[in-house]
């Protein structure tokens, strides 16, 4: 493989985790996911910042994606410094110390992990 | 955080708000949304222009997204200078005085705010 | 408004129009659409080329999008030089003499024109 | 037509093929697809690399897309050097010796090949 593909900063402007048990459907039906691909030969140290409509951003949430690996990060699993609140609009910035590719996907747990939507995240103009 | 991420002009070529009560499904089942993320340390003054197939564009619709905040703007809520007509193809241009990121999402109200689709808007080549 | 936004050549790599009447669902349930936005002050003369897996491309299909207008073009409606065959993988190139923005959307007619998917088309690097 | 449109390296950060027969729905309900468009006048020699969360990438999977043709490649059909495991997160890199356009689409076989999602893949900054 050639040089690592991607950028070091990405944005996802849409995010929303529905709450449990408030409807006729199964209580928890979807997962917000940031699929991260690290094609470089170095581990990627990732920092995620969560933006809200009515208070300051929270973060960084820190995690690692090993060299030449992919990790599908579920926003529901981010717990430190604090869980992402349910029923709340949010957005996110993903930063890495090596180039990565980020794709935003929402999974529907009722359909064997079928995705409901997917879009590439937005890469910062400067790598 | 480093410098603000994004562009000052974005385009969404697809838009359609179905009318009320014309089918077996719940009358009003989806929301067209422009999710806007402002990572800068200044408030973003936003102007939205709506384009149609058969008449001149309408706008600007004006709103503000505060510094380091996200706002999920529902096209259904845009009222001034005039509501967006139902059952009508439209497109939109979103302009800001600071860099922003814009993601186009359609929510399905029947499924606890699950999204039906999502795509990054198209950024103008010149920032 | 400032200068026109977009590019003069766009690609959509995915396309498929299902045939009529071959299942329990309503016979014709979706529309492939290329949503075109022309923000310039000149009419856009559009040429569409359809690519196949096993024969030469067909086109150009010619149409116009007026200045400061949007047009949601259904591939099903393209008839000249020939209709797009059903149950067939295809892809498309959209060319314009002024900058435009192109978004690929598939509509589901069973749900009051809700979209099933949407993504920005791919713009050619050279405008 | 003018020069070929696209890039020679693309990334798709999301991938998942559900296993057979583990639910009330029809056993195999979706296809992960990389839709490739080759507008050049030369055949494209394609190499696909699959990335995982816990082991080294596998590849190359090799295939050809003829000049001025499109091919909708189903990841389920990739068999050499080994089939892509089911129920497993993966990502992919698609390389070509001529410029191509790549769109990631997931088809739902229960609905006459309707797509569940679609997004342009991410092009490498250097062509």
Architecture blueprint of SSEs:
Four copies of one chain form a homotetramer.
Chain A: E1 7-12, E2 30-38, E3 44-52, E4 58-65, E5 69-74, E6 90-108, E7 114-120, E8 122-123
Antiparallel strand pairs in A: 1-6, 1-8, 2-5, 2-6, 3-4, 3-6, 6-7
Describe this structure in words.
- The structure is a homotetramer of 127-residue chains.
- In chain A, strands 1, 2, 3, 4, 5, 6, 7 and 8 form an eight-stranded antiparallel sheet that branches.
- Chain A is built from no helices and eight strands.
- In chain A, a hairpin with a 5-residue loop joins strand 6 and strand 7 (114-120).
- By secondary structure, the first copy, chain A, is mainly β.
- In chain A, 0% of the residues lie in helices and 52% in strands.
- Chain A starts with 6 loop residues before the first strand and ends with a strand.
- Chain A has strands at 7-12, 30-38, 44-52, 58-65, 69-74, 90-108, 114-120, 122-123.
- Chain A has a single domain (7-124), classed as TM1070-like (Hypothetical Protein Tm1070, Chain: A), CATH 2.60.290.
- Chain A is globular and about 45 Å long.
- Residues 21-28 of chain A have low confidence and may be disordered.
- The interface between A and D is medium-sized, with 32 and 36 residues.
- Chains A, B, C, D: Pfam families: ASRT (PF07100).
- Chains A, B, C, D: This is Sensory rhodopsin transducer.
- Chains A, B, C, D: InterPro entries: ASRT, TM1070-like_sf.
Keywords:
127 residues, 52% strand, Hypothetical Protein Tm1070, Chain: A, mainly beta
